[in-house]
Amino acid sequence: MAGFSRPHPHSHRLDRPCTGGSHAMSATTSHTMPAMQPLRPETSLRFACRPGVICFNECCRELDLALFPYDVLRLRRALGISSGEFMKKYVLVTQEDGQVFPICRLSMVDDGRASCVFVRREGCSVYADRPAACRAYPVGRGASFRGDGSLSERLVLLQERHCHGFAENCERSVAAYLEAQGLSEYNRFNDALLRLHQHPRVLDGSFVPTERQLHRYVLALYDLDRFRRLPGRAAIQMATRQEALPDKDEELLLLAIDWLVRDFFGP
Ligand code: SF4
Ligand code: SF4
């Protein structure tokens, strides 16, 4: 969604100090809000996260991690479970004051430290498929449409006192860091959501979704297996001018976004 989220951290299974790092979006209770410093892609970033750092895994606790639909797609595929099972087991859906659309958060473990359900002693157990916020940390990324319809990207450095990654001897540009985290693929799907989240009717406050539309939002974006089997899929195909719903989840997610835009705001 638009705006910056507070990441969290950390990494895993990194043997090479310059290759890791992760974190998640969050707004936690025990960590103070990080200082946010605007960044440019060419800005030099001194940072690395690896198992040997004194704070290893600390950033995967007491965090508030909002998931994008593509995060769920990747995680549930990595775990080999259905999207419905993933949502039931790992996701808390909330509708919050001031938010037009529901927020899907990764549920935390009740271990007294609110640890991420995927963190292990040796690091992130889903590292290859970790959420976008975990990848970008300590960089926060916000995207929006300009008046001419082009995409504008804002980057900030989220520097938290508990994170010792800034003391590591590893320096490269912000762009190179984000590229190394495999973020561009995630950005492709997350930015596609701007058509929903930054639709003029959302921005001017005139769009107030019905209960049915809120339900459709979560179903179509986060539970692709059920979306694919919907009894009303013929209507979805017609609305999106598709002869059949795509087999590939990535294509289905983009179609789901297209369908929701048409369903909510008209053709
Ligand atoms: S260095 Fe920072 S990102 Fe890495 S584990 Fe420590 S707190 Fe988390
Ligand atoms: S998904 Fe992985 S990187 Fe992200 S918070 Fe959980 S354990 Fe940490």
Low-pLDDT stretches: 1-30
Which strand order spans the largest sheet, edge to edge or round the barrel?
1-10-9
Largest sheet: 3 strands, antiparallel
Q: Name the helix and strand elements from N-terminus to C-terminus, one letter apiece.
A: EEHHEEEEEEHEEEHHHHHHHH
The percent range for helix content is 25-40%
Structural class: alpha+beta
Beta-strand portion reads 15-25%
Quaternary assembly: single chain
- Principal-axes geometry comes out as globular
Q: Provide mean pLDDT, rounded.
A: 86
Q: Gyration radius, to the nearest Å?
A: 19 Å
Query: Which hetero compounds are present in the coordinates?
Result: iron/sulfur cluster
Number of domains: 2
Number of strands: 11
Number of discrete helical segments? 11
Question: Termini separation (Å)?
Answer: 22 Å
Question: Which features characterize this protein?
Answer:
Zinc/iron-chelating domain-containing protein; 267 residues; alpha+beta; 2 domains; 3-stranded antiparallel sheet; Puta_zinc/iron-chelating_dom; 11 helices; two-stranded antiparallel sheet; disordered N terminus
